[in-house]
Amino acid sequence: MPAMLAAKFTVLHLSQSPSPQSSFRLGIRPSPAARARSVAPRAAASATAVSAKPAAASSPLVADRKVVRIGLPSKGRMAEQTLSLLKSCQLSVRQLNPRQYTADIPLIPNLEVWFQRPKDIVRKLQSGDLDLGIVGFDIVSEYGEGTEDLVVVHDALDFGHCRLSLAVPKEGIFENIITLEDLLKMPEWTEERPLRVVTGFGYLGDKFLREKGFKHVRFLSADGALESYPPMGMADAIVDLVSSGTTLRENNLKEIDGGVVLQSQATLVASRKSLHKRKGVLEVTHELLERLEAHLRATAELMVTANMRGNSAEEVAERVLSQTSICGLQGPTVSPVYCRRDGKVDLEYYAINVVVPQKLLYKSIQQLRSIGGSGVLVTKLTYIFDEETPRWRNLLSELGL
Ligand SMILES: Nc1ncnc2c1ncn2[C@@H]1O[C@H](COP(=O)(O)OP(=O)(O)OP(=O)(O)O)[C@@H](O)[C@H]1O
Ligand SMILES: O=P(O)(O)OC[C@H]1O[C@H](OP(=O)(O)OP(=O)(O)O)[C@H](O)[C@@H]1O
Ligand SMILES: [Mg+2]
Question: Which CATH number fits domain 162-263: 3.30.365.10, 1.10.3370.10, 3.40.190.10, 3.90.470.20?
Answer without folding.
Answer: 3.40.190.10
